[in-house]
Specification:
By secondary structure, this protein is α+β, with helices and mostly antiparallel strands. The protein folds into 4 domains: about 100 residues, RNA polymerase II/Efflux pump adaptor protein, barrel-sandwich hybrid domain (OB fold (Dihydrolipoamide Acetyltransferase, E2P)), CATH 2.40.50.100; about 80 residues, OB fold (Dihydrolipoamide Acetyltransferase, E2P) (Beta Barrel); about 80 residues, Dihydrolipoamide Transferase (Irregular); about 220 residues, Chloramphenicol Acetyltransferase (2-Layer Sandwich), CATH 3.30.559.10. It has a 6-stranded mixed beta sheet with strand order 19-28-27-26-22-25. Strand 20 and strand 21 form a beta hairpin. The N and C termini lie far apart (about 60 Å).
């Protein structure tokens, strides 16, 4: 059966998109995960991938054309499949056609109302005038579902166009989602901490007092349709606000906290009165609890005291309790698992390790950092040397596409950065053209954004090679999984002081091990070895990187 693909919302403020380039043409075979097109949003040009297998039967928006979000982008189905019904029937409906359809339904509705005043059941599922349905947006090119980290507006609150409604956790970052409408927040469809698919019902905004209980939300989440009595629906949100969104401070005043934040604080034994909220009006949110340090856990203290008492009474019998703590996987964690699993089990990895004499690099770095307002790290030197080595060994800067190999003529360096929930890879564009100080400044800026969850999807796209450094943790040597579609990733260990042979004598030296993971489909052993030799030469003779 043919699948209709619509213009996605690839940024939180995107209202329309322009097809910059089609990477698949009509009649081409498409597999799930293939990049269909490059779409220009209001923030960046992003790759849009297919979630379906089949043949590209129809292109609805040509290269260079602009169309609103949800306009027909393409149709994928079985080769030779008849899609005339989809094209004629409105799968490619523009917003104008949708408006005409709504007007027709309103006319029919008015006719029915004039014919029988008492049949209100026929109106069930219709959207009242002025009411806007907001679905879970697609905030990144690979996002399939999102988690509501926190709501900044509550049911009953007034909302202005441009107000931040919620913080939504995608597979890449936590992003603010703003409202495109004015009115009252009539319904929240996805609670804090809950995860839902893209296009599930997120919220309903409309005129104050509007009854939204009969709105048909079958196109998104179906949470609006419940069989519970109306009285319970009205009372439960109020109870939630009083019991789970507020707590009592040390001075007797109210402390506002999200339900998720309160639950996390309760589990960790944290007194909300000790936590400073970063949300709207000082509201405590999930991040504040995660970042809070210094609180004792009374419950655990009691367990420890009980364990000591038991041990004293029965000194030869170990006492304890078997238990597990189950944590819901974040969107980032799920995506890391999916992407790395795909890479490990599809790309035939092999590994090459080389040892580098870092004596000259250490001396050069010391001299460079003696200059005012300059700070260069060994990692910056590795990135610069890798970028220059890639220029001499373009085979390592390639991608495997199945039928062809793509050789990138540009060098975009991915730099692995550890964050609380996993690993992100910001990208330094055209790194071979940057100086050491420019690399250092850009890496610091991107790493800071990543750790503060302020990094944008556009900051993490387009890498052609990746560097992962665990040297700061004392790791001497390790291997990494290739960050596809790259053909290789470099693992950087710590600098070790050890005896080395220099000019026929044993002296104290400083060495560092580099391990290159290669995709054997694109990079042969000799090619990878030659790349490492060039990289070693640059690092052992840093002056050559300044030329």
């Amino acid at each position: 059966m043919a699948e209709v693909i619509k213009m996605p919302r690839l940024s939180d403020t995107m209202e329309e998109g322009t097809v910059a380039k089609w990477l698949k043409q009509k009649g081409d075979k498409v597999e799930e995960g293939d990049i269909l097109a490059e779409i220009e949003t209001d923030k960046a040009t992003m790759e849009f991938e297919s979630f379906y297998d089949g043949t590209l039967l129809h292109i609805g928006i040509e290269e260079g054309d602009t169309a609103p979000v949800d306009a027909l982008l393409a149709i994928i189905g079985e080769e030779g499949e008849d899609i005339s019904g989809l094209l004629d029937g409105g799968a490619d409906e523009t917003s104008d056609k949708k408006e005409d359809k709504e007007e027709e339904s309103k006319k029919e509705e008015s006719k029915e109302d004039s014919g029988s005043d008492g049949e209100s059941d026929e109106d069930e599922g219709e959207i009242p005038e002025g009411v806007e349905i907001i679905n879970m947006p697609r905030l990144s090119d690979t996002m399939e579902e999102g988690t509501v980290a926190s709501w900044l507006k509550q049911e009953g609150d007034k909302v202005e166009e441009g107000d931040i409604l919620a913080e939504i956790e995608t597979d890449k970052a936590t992003m603010e989602f703003e409202s495109f409408y004015e009115g009252t927040l009539l319904k929240i469809g996805i609670q804090e901490g809950e995860t839902a698919k893209v296009d599930s019902l997120l919220a309903i905004i409309g005129p104050e007092g509007t009854d939204v209980s009969k709105i048909d939300t079958s196109g998104g989440a179906k949470k609006a349709k419940k069989s519970a009595p109306k009285e319970e629906k009205k009372e439960k949100p109020e109870e939630a606000k009083d019991t789970s969104s507020k707590a009592e401070g040390k001075d007797g005043g109210r402390i506002f906290a999200s339900p998720l934040a309160k639950k996390m604080a309760e589990d960790k034994g944290i007194n909300l009165a000790d936590v400073k909220g970063s949300g709207e009006n000082g509201r405590i949110v999930k991040k504040d609890i995660e970042d809070f340090k210094g609180a004792e856990k009374p419950a655990e203290a009691k367990k420890d005291a009980a364990a000591e008492t038991t041990a004293a009474a029965q000194p030869y019998v170990p006492a304890g309790e078997e238990s597990f703590e189950e944590r819901k996987n974040s969107q980032m964690r799920k995506t890391i698992a999916k992407r790395l699993g795909e890479s490990k089990f599809t790309a035939p990895h092999y590994y090459l390790t080389i040892e580098v004499d870092m004596a000259n690099a250490m001396a050069s770095r010391k001299h460079i950092n003696e200059m005012p307002d300059v700070k260069v790290s060994f990692n910056d030197m590795v990135i610069k040397a890798s970028a220059m080595a890639l220029r001499k060994h373009p085979q390592v800067n390639s991608q495997w596409t199945g039928d062809t190999m793509k050789f990138a003529k540009h060098i975009h360096m991915g730099v692995a950065v550890a964050v609380d929930e996993g690993l992100v890879v910001p990208v330094l564009k055209f790194a071979d053209q940057m100086s050491l100080t420019q690399i250092g400044s850009n890496v610091k800026d991107l790493a800071g954004k990543a750790r503060n969850k302020k990094i944008q999807p556009s900051d993490m796209e387009g890498s052609t090679f990746t560097v992962s450094n665990l040297g700061m943790f004392g790791i001497v040597e390790f291997t990494s999984i290739i960050n596809q579609p790259n053909s290789a990733i470099l693992s950087v260990g710590t600098i070790v002081e050890k005896p080395v042979v220099r000019n026929g004598e044993i002296v104290v030296g400083n060495t560092m091990k580099l391990t290159l993971a290669c995709d054997h489909r694109t990079v042969d052993g000799a090619t990878g070895a030659a790349f490492l030799q060039t990289l070693k030469t640059y690092l052992e003779n840093p002056v050559t990187m300044l030329a």
